[in-house]
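To assess whether the prediction recovers the assembly geometry, we first specified each molecular entity separately, as shown.
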Amino acid sequence: MNGRIRTLRIVARSMWRRASGRYALVVMGLWLLVSAVSLVWTPYSLLATDGFDTWGSPSSSHLLGTDGVGADVLSWLMAGSRTNLVIAVLTVVVAAAFGLLLVAAMVSCNSAFSSASVVVVDALISIPTVLVALILSVPFGASAAVIVAACGFAYGLNLARILRPSALLAARSAYVESAIWSGASPIRVFFTHIMPNTLPVLSVQLSMSAGTSLLAEAGLTYLGVGVGSGVPSWGHSLTTSVRFISIYPLAVVWPGLVVTLVVIALNLFGDTLRDAIDPLTNPALREAA
Amino acid sequence: MSQSSGAHDETGATESKTSAASTDATLNARVKSPKRNGSNKWIHIIIAAVAVVAVIIGVTVARNSGDTDGSAGTANTADTVTIGLKLAPVSLDIRHQSGSAIEQVLIGNVYEALLSRDSDNKVQPGLATSWDISKDGKTYTFHLNRNMNFSNGDRLDAEDVAWSINQLKERQYYNANQVASLEKAEVVDANTVKLTLSSPDSNLLWYLTGRPGLVFDKQAKYDAKTEAIGSGPYTVESFDSSSRMVLKANPKYWGTSHKAVTQNVILRFLTDDNAAVNALKSGDVDVLSPVNATLAKSLDSKTYKVSAADGSDKYVLAFNCANAKLSDKRIRQAIRYAINHKEIIASRGNVDYALGGPIPSVDPGYEDLTDLYPYDLDKAKSLMAEAGYSTDKPLKLTLTYANTYGTELGDQLRSQLAEIGVDLTIDYVEFSTWLQDVHANGDYELSLVDHAESHDFYKWTTPGYYYHYDNKEVQSLYAKALAATDDASSNDYLKQAAKIVSEDSPADWLFGYRVTVAYNRNISGFPEKLSQTVLPLWAISKAQ
Amino acid sequence: MRFVCRRLLLFAGALVGLSLLVFALLRILPGDVAAVVAGTNATAEQLASLRSQMGLDKSYAAQYGDWIVGLLHGDLGTSVVSGKAVAAQVSSHASVTFPLIVFSLLIALAIGLPLGCAAVLTRNARLRGVFHVIAIVAGAVPALWGGLLLILLFSKGSGLLGLLPSQGFPDAGWSAPLSALAALMLPALATGITAGASIMRYTRAAVGDVASSQAVDMAMACGMTRRQAVLRVALRLATPQLVSVIGLTFAQMVTGVMVVENLFALPGLGSMLVTDVGNRDLVAVQSELFLLAAFFLFLGLLVDLLHRALDPRLKNATVGSGEVLA
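The predicted structure of the complete assembly is given in tokenized form:
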């Protein structure tokens, strides 16, 4: 246990040492902080509207201006960050669970089962996220759950396909063979020997999935199959800002900027995490081991 | 470089041009900055960037000046006018398909009715030149124009008129219920038709200007969803509900007074407000009806004429009177006192008009009822308190409305009603879901919809309608209004009925939607008023 | 061969499952087309007569049977609302969407492949950093926002430089090819740039992997420069992987494409689906959804087979991983 904490500390430190890692950690820390703060405080109540002060420019009373009903843009963005955090986290969890399950199936010893799962993954992977979301939202209505389900499904398949080579390489390796010969259970083998080998790729993929889920949230919400009306989210803010782009172009800047900055952070987080947890690229980790 | 920006200053009238000029000024400044002494690479890059911008600006200027040259021509009229509309009819089947979009496009242009209506919503001659009404108000005799024909060449006479009206009744075509009192139509002679009513109906003539009065070709066989054979000044050349409808002047048009001035009229369906305004600015369309009021402010008044006119659209926030919570009149009244109509109208661009009752300003029986329930939070709160609710103990209500209206109205209502202790949940659904849940099943608490039809007071006298409003006094007043043989007394009864409805508060009327129309000043003959329901296009023309 | 058969069988099975799923999901929807057509003035009698006219009073089994029989005969049905053939409706909207996807993909490739290779080739750490930043930033822009920024920069009417039409598709469609292309330019850029960034990442990774492998060392030992070795050997070896990635990118771009279609007011498949679902035109919607999903299943099949054909290492691996392991 102690060793694990030490490893974590080394990983975090080597991520922090790089500028991109620092950026990623700072932005993600801010994201968490703002989400937490928004639960108890936002500059204005989300309910506050003012029809006489719509599309206001940034001012001292409304730092990022107001939207089409005169609501405070900053407050909505702050509150939106928690919705997006939930969506990103759930998407990652669903995608990881679904993806690893598929990987396990694909590298399993049962040849019929594994080959079948490979073919199923290959067949389903080409279905676009938006189509899944559309089909789901038709009977169940627009909600964050639709986004999570659609993204988790699509990214899980993607993950499975991307992890397969490295998982397969590990599965074919001598140490796995010896572990199987020595009578370790297949599940144990998978989690102790195969999965760690995929960790660098897994970390990149999952953090990218988190980022992509935010992009998908913006897109799906705009298309009306994402989070429902009245629920704060960055996609919601972006969607409401679009209405009068030609006369209030400034309004679209903020929500888009927030999404972009956070997605950049998530992508960088994955990259630096991969470098930091891979003993091949991180000498500090080798020394510690 | 300097030349092209000089050219800009001379012609730079629009926003885009000036801002483009300022961009290249900053780039100029950068070229002159001390960085010049830095690495050669940067200079090359900057020069290249400036060159690209210069070329782009040059091309734009050349293109724009080319445009102005082209438009300054002779005073002829163009043979094509393009009109941008917001709503597209989904089919051409005017006998079955609901919605004002289909009426707007087809009535008066492709199909003609027995009567027509002018821009003040008054009845005018149509296929019939004159009519007589019997003393008891139960028999109407219409004298038709002579030598009329359909666009396929078939003759149009009393036979077709009577057939069309009898079919309407028999097959229960759309809006047949509006003329429920109409019993039958009979041919007197080739140019005379007699309508018999079971009871007098002072609205009958007006309804005959709309769908119930449309005359179809008895002989023709065609797929009514994709084709339209009528007697109007235009024929449908092509139609795709996702992009446009092309109307062509009907070469066999029977009349002279409504003969099409312009050969081709293209109706483009632009659902996106920004795209619509851009299309107008770039000259892709000549007219926008409607144009978003807020966006219309960005139009240059030298080039475009922008005007707003009252219409029959009423944004009705209905309270389900059959619902346990809302059967308490105090709650309905509290909600009406709590809604700040001025604020809602302001946020929509300050064009719409406050409407305090069920009858819009263009209909008979209108009077300003906004004083009945002025914005008064204290009164609203005390009414809520009487009913047992406050901000600490809020009343939970759900507003169901269609996602075609935008989220803004729901957000505003939620915000305004929160102050008096109503916790409003917004159920933002597809229009089809709204139709099922609210309209067909009457299963709702609050509902919001734009009732666009004119002369639709009868919905308040039909307890089966989704309002679930049942007031005997209103019903008898409306019956008297229908039976009245002169307009003045009919209007008087309507006014009384409307006032009672408003006092009872089975709904709040958020505002009357005023349609803003914008068109290029080289266009003439566009009907500015009531263009959302009837849009006669025969007079439209474009100076070239 | 066994693999191909299995794959085809699965494709057929997936289609059947898909048809059932789509049909069933659509019947859960509240509201029906008759109510939408009849609108807010409808009476109960009008609704009933419309329903029987439209065949909505038939049992679900009969409706499903009708649909499947039609599909097998290549008949996608007729929209009960517009009265037009669904096939015609789909093809007219697809003539906007598919060129848009292809156009976006071309832009993505034009950006992603060279930059990806350049990122592998360059030895300049700073330049490498620049490539990295480009890939990260461009890949993080929501298609909606990217589209908005492009409108604000380049569009006629509301942009800084009035270069390209901002919204809408020319009335004449593809019979005016230049203006049609111009109309698709900004939307294609909006999705293409983001997709390009992801292709760039994948190219860099795939080519980079091969570049640090023995194959490239060998090629360099035989006298190629590193540049030649990467471009001729590594790129060639990475091709199968890239084909898969490009196939996937095609499918994944659809979300972005539907968003920009909406933003740029293009009459594409996205708007058609939304309108038809809104109208509860289920006959049309089920065929459209089925067709689209089938198309992407087919695309997956194609990419898969292509991947196998291109990668000689997979030729002997008749099935997946399992057998090798056992």
